[in-house]
Write a structure and sequence with these properties.
The complex is a heterodimer of chains A (about 325) and B (about 525). Chain A has seven helices and 20 strands. In chain A, the strands form five sheets. In chain A, strands 8-7-2-1-19-20 form a six-stranded mixed beta sheet. Chain A has a six-stranded mixed beta sheet with strand order 9-10-13-16-18-17, covered by helices on one side. In chain A, about 30% of the residues lie in helices and about 30% in strands. Chain B is an all-alpha fold and about 525 residues long. Chain B has a two-stranded antiparallel sheet with strand order 2-3. In chain B, about 55% of the residues are buried. At the A-B interface, α1, β3, α2, α4 and β11 of A face β1, α1, α8, α16 and α19 of B. β3 of chain A pairs antiparallel with β1 of chain B.
């Protein structure tokens, strides 16, 4: 069977539409999303009293001349993974002064988009036999789990095993703690306990796919720029970011101990790689959601021969 | 990445709201970008740039550098803007693949990688020819030591050039195989030494140019009484034109030399975070580094010329003239002689030695990372992308680059087939393609362009189009000149055949790799193909 695995689309409409189209394009039997499906930025479109609108998008002040230009701007914002919202200058000032209002705004926009994406999946995959598996990541609010669970087209295997043409797959969306204190950041010990609980449901480790959002520590999948205390990238004298491992030690130890067929990971956008950890093939397709580029991995595998081919693709 | 429990406010861009999410980092500042850009530019190449000036009678070194600066800035803008469209692309390989065809991206990367490998070893040769050889020649005179003069002669011989280059190749292969942290630590400290050494050299040249130091007497003291005057007299007697005036044609032709130094700042891959913004700071940083480096080159040229006298410099570097030392009349040689002290000579030559060394190191970084990317993409054997679990370095790619560099270094050292500028045509062609694609990018990928921070317009025209057009004009001219310049260019049949051969092998490599992967059931045409969205 052929699995298409992608991760970290972070609210990008364009990437989600590509994800749904990937089944046909790559002739995949299953499409799997490894978490972090929600966005991080809201772009307010300010409507002035005279009816004109403007927004600061990607650092450039945009002033749509008519409704068509406004629609195009909204599409660009949504494709980038940001959330556009119209408001007056006064409303913008109120939000800017009140973090609780911004938090509430984020939750509303995030949940609306996830619900819309689920509806899109149900529409576009209706006539296809492709399995569609979607899990959350450490950046995603817990509320999206309920939306995913309610879908009869999307499978949401957080902490539970689903059978996939003779293979067994489970997903863990939690991650070890990050400097940003995201919704699903947890201590390593707790992460290990969640992996163990899911692994206990697996019958045959040699045919198991561990879909764990965070990659194993100290592999080529978990390299990210080193940050200082102000979240600035620490650079080398040559102007390159200094790279360090930021993956999970719990995930590494679990994979080395259980030796599943594959580990499918995301989380670290800068580290697209396929590697070996013991006998296990581990991969991270990376992410370029902000450019509307969907990074993914094509995995040809079956119950008898295990992994036959892997190819990282940018769609 | 810090994993402390503290959680600073996430960075945001003006006019937007952000929430606490992983990966939100702050941008590199303008000053930092400027510093990194400066580190990429091989200012030390001024040593042979000045030495070739006499081969272009009627040219102005300073004016040529000033004019070509506009081409360098245009090229820098194209790369900076492309990196803001595809911030994680890592250079022309990916952005050319995505905007045109995967074959174009791969072949461009292949050509650039081959010539970067060439300059890995050849910069080692430069160390012997322009750094160590001249230093020992001057020290031999200053300390009246024939042993030091013999060492200088060793660095001028073909096996001396090869052994020095090979030592540099092996040094960086070992250092970079042991981990980039060690490499960057060494380079960081070396950069401070470079700043001090270069500052002292400029000061010595300034004092000599203003008459505080008498170059002629210092020269005569080392080379023998009346030696300074004989240099001019011999060249005049041999028919050298020491008063060619200044003409635009030769000045434009001379541009290939400073271009060779300035253009490679673009090989620095920028990093940007997820809060994308118009990276005016980054563009300012990159272009400022080019401007400052160009003016540094101009200052070295001008002060060097004024320090020793324009006529004398032309005579000393003229193919018709005679220079009474066992080394060329390079600007570092002249500055060391002006300094008049053996210790000062060592200090003055350090910037040349260290910059040339680290340009070699940078070429290895570029080449080995490109090979690693091919291995990852299935365009080369998977082993090429093997990374040491212990050191996290691409050992096979480093070894492959080093072997290729040694082979090309041998050709450079033991034959006359390859010259200093042999690779400029091939690498310039890649830059030319990038500029042409940059010029049309806003029109062929309109949606991507409009939804990117590169959507900047000047007078209604995309900045990318303006920069790409200007860059393409400069690059087209310079690439052409590099293949027809008989004075000291890359016109040997071996160089031309190699350039054509590298291009053909790159194309064949792409086709074969695609066919092999297709046999394995992998459709490489979908590697970079955009998934159509209904």
């Amino acid at each position: 069977m052929r699995i298409y695995f992608a991760s970290d689309v972070h609210g990008s409409n364009r990437c989600w539409l590509k994800f749904l189209a990937a089944a046909r394009f790559y002739e995949a039997d299953a499409i799997v999303m490894g978490g972090d499906i929600t966005g991080k930025v809201v772009v307010p479109i300010i409507r002035e009293d005279d009816g004109t609108t403007w927004a600061t998008f990607l650092g450039i002040r945009r002033q749509p001349k008519d409704q068509a230009e406004l629609d195009r701007l909204v599409k660009q914002i949504d494709d980038t993974g940001y959330y556009s919202v119209e408001m007056t200058a006064a409303e913008y000032a109120e939000h800017a002064a009140d973090p609780a209002k911004v938090e509430a705004l984020f939750r509303r926009l995030v949940l609306e988009r996830v619900q819309r994406w689920i509806e899109l999946a149900e529409e576009r995959l209706a006539d296809q036999p492709t399995r569609c598996i979607v899990n959350a990541g450490n950046d995603d609010f817990f509320e999206i789990d309920e939306l995913l669970d309610a879908s009869d087209r999307i499978e949401h295997p957080e902490g539970r095993v689903v059978e996939l043409d003779g293979l067994e797959l489970f997903a863990i969306g939690f991650a070890n703690e990050t400097p940003w204190q995201c919704p699903r950041d947890i201590p390593e010990a707790e992460l290990r306990a969640r992996i163990d609980a899911a692994a206990a449901q697996v019958n045959d480790m040699e045919r198991a796919l561990f879909t764990i959002h965070v990659p194993p520590f100290d592999t080529e999948l978990d390299k990210a720029p080193k940050l200082d205390e102000e979240l600035r990238v620490v650079m080398t004298p040559m102007g390159q970011p200094e790279i360090v491992s930021v993956g999970s030690t719990a995930v590494r130890e679990a994979i080395l101990e259980y030796q599943p067929l594959m580990g499918l990971h995301g989380h670290i956008h800068e580290s697209p790689r396929v590697a070996k950890l013991g006998r296990t093939t581990v991969l991270n397709p990376g992410s370029e959601y902000g450019e509307g580029v969907l990074r993914g991995a094509l995995i040809d595998c079956d119950r008898k021969r295990g992994v036959k081919n892997t190819l990282l693709v940018t769609g | 990445m810090s994993t402390s429990g503290t959680s600073p406010a996430p960075p945001t861009a003006a006019g937007t709201f952000t929430r606490k999410s992983s990966g939100l980092v702050r941008q590199v500042g303008t000053a930092d970008t400027f510093f990194y850009g400066m580190m990429q530019i091989a200012v030390a190449y001024v040593v042979f740039i000045v030495a070739t000036w006499a081969l272009y009678p009627g040219s102005s070194m300073e004016l040529a550098t000033f004019i070509v600066l506009f081409g360098a800035i245009a090229l820098g803008l194209v790369y900076a803007l492309f990196s803001s469209v595809y911030p994680r692309s890592g250079g022309e390989y990916v952005f050319l693949s995505r905007t045109t065809h995967p074959g174009v991206g791969f072949v461009s990367s292949f050509v650039m990688t081959f010539w970067q490998s060439y300059y890995f070893g050849v910069n080692g040769a430069f160390l012997a020819l322009f750094g160590l050889g001249p230093l020992f020649a001057v020290l031999g005179l200053q300390l009246d030591s024939s042993a030091l003069t013999d060492i200088s002669s060793f660095f001028a011989k073909d096996y001396g050039i090869f052994l020095t280059g090979a030592s540099v190749v092996l040094f960086f292969a070992v250092i970079q195989s042991r981990g980039m942290k060690l490499y960057f630590t060494i380079q960081k400290h070396a950069s401070y030494v470079v700043l001090v050494s270069l500052g002292i050299t400029l000061l010595v040249l300034l004092l000599t140019a203003t008459g505080a130091i008498d170059f002629a007497s210092h020269f005569d003291k080392l080379a023998g009484s009346g030696a300074y005057d004989r240099v001019t007299a011999d060249a005049t007697a041999a028919g050298a034109n020491l008063h060619p005036g200044t003409k635009l044609g030769p000045t434009l032709e001379f541009m290939i030399w400073p271009a060779f130094s300035l253009f490679f700042a673009v090989l620095s891959v920028s990093f940007s975070g997820e809060i994308k913004n118009v990276k005016r700071g980054q563009m300012i940083g990159i272009t400022s580094a080019m401007v400052v480096s160009a003016f540094l080159l101009i200052a070295l040229m001008f002060l060097g010329r004024k320090a020793v006298g324009t006529e004398w410099l032309l005579a000393a570097t003229s193919p018709d003239g005679s220079f009474p030392l066992d080394t060329g009349a390079f600007i570092n040689v002249l500055a060391m002689m002006a300094g008049g002290n053996w210790f000062l000579s060592i200090v003055e030559d350090l910037w040349v030695i260290l910059i040339i060394m680290f340009v070699a190191g940078t070429t290895l970084v570029y080449s080995s990372r490109a090979m690693l990317a091919w291995g990852l993409d299935g365009m080369a054997p998977e082993r090429l992308s093997a990374v040491s679990e212990k050191r996290h370095t691409p050992g096979v790619a480093i070894a492959t680059t080093s072997l290729l560099a040694l082979a090309l270094l041998a050709v450079f050292s033991f034959t006359d087939e390859f010259r200093i500028l042999s690779g400029l045509g091939g690498m310039g062609a890649t830059f030319f393609v990038a500029c042409v694609i940059g010029a049309v990018f806003p029109y062929i990928k309109r949606d991507t362009f409009e939804a990117s921070p590169a959507a900047i317009r000047w007078g209604g025209i995309p900045l990318m189009t303006i920069a790409g057009t200007v860059g393409a004009i400069f690059l087209g001219y310079l690439v052409t000149r590099s293949f027809v310049d008989d004075a000291f260019g890359a016109t040997s049949s071996t160089t031309i055949r190699t350039n054509i051969g590298v291009l053909v092998v790159g194309i064949l490599w792409y086709l074969v790799a695609r066919a092999v992967r297709a046999k394995e059931g992998v459709d490489m045409s979908k590697r970079f193909a955009e998934i159509p969205v209904e």
